[in-house]
Design a protein that fits this description.
Elements: H1 6-16, H2 23-35, H3 38-54, E1 56-57, E2 64-65, H4 71-74, E3 79-86, H5 89-98, E4 103-107, H6 125-133, E5 139-142, H7 148-161, E6 167-170, H8 186-194
Length: about 200
Amino acid sequence: MRYIPLALERLTEQFARLPGIGGKTAQRLAFHVLSMTQEEASSFAESILEVKRSIRTCPICQNLTDEEICPICADPERDHGVVCVVADPKDVVAMERAREYQGVYHVLHGVISPLNRVGVDDIRIRELLTRVGEGGIREVIMATNPDTEGEATAMYISRLLRPLEIKVTRLAYGIPVGSQLEYADEVTLLRALEGRQEI
């Protein structure tokens, strides 16, 4: 026997399909939508549709934009000779929050992952090679996650870029700020030692 209206059940199911949203949270969100005014609900629904209509990828860096070219690629103040390669648009947001990096980006929209059936042709490597091949790029910074797939993707791309004779670097990683040595695993400590700098 059904104890909530079908429309509310369907909305709960849609929320539950979102990443990181469990059944209880999905139900809470669905009930919240139900408590909205008609105007608020229409505005909420319209913003979802607007995102789907207006957002596309930048033809240069493959990041998300609602303009012809994304604001970072269009910015003449950025160093267009340094390209930071990231897996997802969320990574651009994370890098920009630090307010230290002044180069541009290239978004792969994924990493090579045979287990998830994501191959070389499923991510934006070809666009990166074309971009680098056009000249003007001095350095490519590999900023994929330090997990198996991220490492494999970084190594694969660096091998492809080697014949183009440009500098290819990898983000340093090691012990996070604020943590304690006793809780660091062996691989993290090894990476921290390898990436040590003179002070």
